[in-house]
Amino acid sequence: MDFNETSSLSLSNDEILICGFTEECDFRRFFFITALSGIALCGIFNNGLLAWIFMKHQCPNTPPTLYPTFLAILDGLICFFYIFLFGFDVVMIYLRIKSFFVIYHTYIVPAFVLSKITQLAIPYLLIFVTLERYAWISEHM
Q1: Any bridge partners for residue 78, and if so which?
Q2: Domains of the chain by residue range
Q3: H-helix segments, the chain
Q4: 87/40 Cα distance (integer angstroms)
Q5: Would you give per-residue pLDDT tens digits along the chain (141 residues)?
Q6: Which sign does the torsion angle of CA 116, 117, 120, 125 carry?
Q7: What PANTHER family is this protein classified in (predicted)?
Q8: Whole-angstrom Cα distance, residue 116 to residue 111?
Q9: Is there a contact between 98 and 3 (Cβ–Cβ < 8 Å)?
């Protein structure tokens, strides 16, 4: 299967639906998205490290870390989904890797839905973090 090949499905005599590799990507887009995917990879590592620190090192005189731990996990997931929704896509298009094309179109819908759920959960978690910190501070006043 070559990317220049297309599959045609005849809907009627006048309409033809063309499926295949159609999007173009210039080097500038490839470079920026790839560089930002590298930054997102650092974000995954650092948020994983932060979640590990929150889970392993708790002192009695510090506020609870349940919500900040989940916030670090969700932030790491946002970075993960960025790589798989944007970085993987631009590498697939620019380098024209056939297997990436099939893999990308297999997981794009579930990954997009999960990224939207993660994006929706983060603001609510920030509210809970703020309320938790307020409750901890007001208890110690």
Answers
A1: none
A2: 25-139
A3: 27-56, 66-82, 88-95, 98-139
A4: 10
A5: 444 444 444 445 555 545 556 678 889 999 999 999 999 999 999 999 999 998 888 777 777 778 889 999 999 999 999 999 999 989 888 888 888 888 888 899 999 999 999 999 999 999 988 988 888 888 766
A6: negative
A7: G-PROTEIN COUPLED RECEPTORS FAMILY 1 PROFILE DOMAIN-CONTAINING PROTEIN, PROTEIN CBG23488-RELATED
A8: 9
A9: yes
